[in-house]
Amino acid sequence: xxxxxxxxxxxxxxxxxxxxxxxxxxxxxxxxxxxxxxxxxxxxxxxxxxxxxxxxxxxxxxxxxxxxxxxxxxxxxxxxxxxxxxxxxxxxxxxxxxxxxxxxxxxxxxxxxxxxxxxxxxxxxxxxxxxxxxxxxxxxxxxxxxxxxxxxxxxxxxxxxxxxxxxxxxxxxxxxxxxxxxxxxxxxxxxxxxxxxxxxxxxxxxxxxxxxxxxxxxxxxxxxxxxxxxxxxxxxxxxxxxxxxxxxxxxxxxxxxxxxxxxxxxxxxxxxxxxxxxxxxxxxxxxxxxxxxxxxxxxxxxxxxxxxxxxxxxxxxxxxxxxxxxxxxxxxxxxxxxxxxxxxxxxxxxxxxxxxxxxxxxxxxxxxxxxxxxxxxxxxxxxxxxxxxxxxxxxxxxxxxxxxxxxxxxxxxxxxxxxxxxxxxxxxxxxxxxxxxxxxxxxxxxxxxxxxxxxxxxxxxxxxxxxxxxxxxxxxxxxxxxxxxxxxxxxxxxxxxxxxxxxxxxxxxxxxxxxxxxxxxxxxxx
Length: 526
Fold this sequence. Notes:
Blueprint: E1 9-14, H1 20-29, E2 33-38, H2 43-48, E3 53-56, E4 82-85, H3 87-95, E5 99-101, E6 107-115, E7 126-127, E8 131-132, E9 135-142, E10 145-148, E11 154-158, E12 166-169, E13 174-177, H4 189-200, H5 209-224, E14 229-233, H6 237-250, E15 254-260, H7 268-280, E16 283-288, H8 290-297, H9 303-328, E17 333-335, H10 340-345, E18 355-357, E19 371-373, H11 381-390, H12 395-398, H13 418-437, E20 449-451, E21 457-461, E22 464-473, E23 476-477, E24 485-486, H14 491-504, E25 508-513
Parallel strand pairs: 1-2, 1-3, 3-4, 4-13, 14-15, 14-17, 15-16, 17-19, 22-25
Antiparallel strand pairs: 5-10, 6-9, 6-11, 7-8, 11-12, 12-13, 18-19, 20-22, 21-22, 23-24
Helix pairs in contact: 5-6, 5-11, 6-11, 8-9, 13-14
């Protein structure tokens, strides 16, 4: 994305908060474009971006701690609306002449908040409990407290232990709250955020799937020109949407490569080869390498070794395909489905660049010197799905759950062979079918089905004793996969899944449910 975008820009200043990305996402859910910048960004650099507003995030430190990040008071004289959250609220108060103290009382988790004077920020909030809210249940996480608002500010809310839990200076368009409005546990949190964005900062809700497509198509055309683009399709959402955007932008200048390693779930290879091509008209090169990957994995049980083998073989196959295509048609750009969280976590949080030179993409040899193009670089996962829908991709491609690159190989605990893959595929297909019928497939972030291939469980099927495989159901809910909780599925759904698996998959005689959150467990078993 370039800085001449027609959308308003909100900059989220990150003070080390675990929720900085969530704040940025909530702003975008209000259809306002946002980016995350580090707290070390000079005020002059912030002003140069001409943001419509700035949000100061929370952070883990005390404003009084040695070396704790502070806010340059010059920010508040720049004429830019500013909203402080948690640590950002306290740093804002301190910089403007308010008082922040260690009161001896901390507030963590759900807290009752009383609205003292609604002002602009807290006016007409709707409570799920009693309509128009005079009090809210909000999510706190702080030790220090603002005990006196800065001069010119009105105190809007308080709790039993925090005398100043929200304030605003409507004239200067400055406001802040002690709690976390971005988390779902805070009642009316999105309303509070939108009151700042629209009522105080005057942002326009122009960041939509349609505008994203229009802007990206124009940007891609300007970058690619008459060049040719190569894109690897994995069967996942990100690569599919990236390819669909490129196809909309440059059409026949794009060639996609799909390496079928034989480790996808039932029907997924066919979805790529048929449904995606039908929806986009893309030029697709398919490499059927199922036998190659199975041979390479034969007898290997260690999960890390399995991952390395699959990565190595994929690179070799893709390298060969890229070399052939480059030799016959010429390739100038390699497309990659990088998302905004990847950019932020790798330290490139400005989100502004869409292209960079890259001569060793994913382990490709130096003589395949492509430029890298990342059409999804500015987007979060939910925005990628919205763009996919806008581009006309089928729902089953757009709403596909995250799936590991090594595929079913790391959902088989033990060595991988065709028979075990067939057993797991059948069980996984039942799970996906039943969750879809129950209307829960979109509410579940990820639903691994794990075959414990090195375990034999005793059972009774028919009139005889059996020694079959156990399978583990691992449904989880999450926003970003950084943390996850096990999904509370209805018992009748679990019963249907278990009954169908043990009836239809005769090699399986036991179905168990994993009820571990992340942390301490990861989402995948391997």
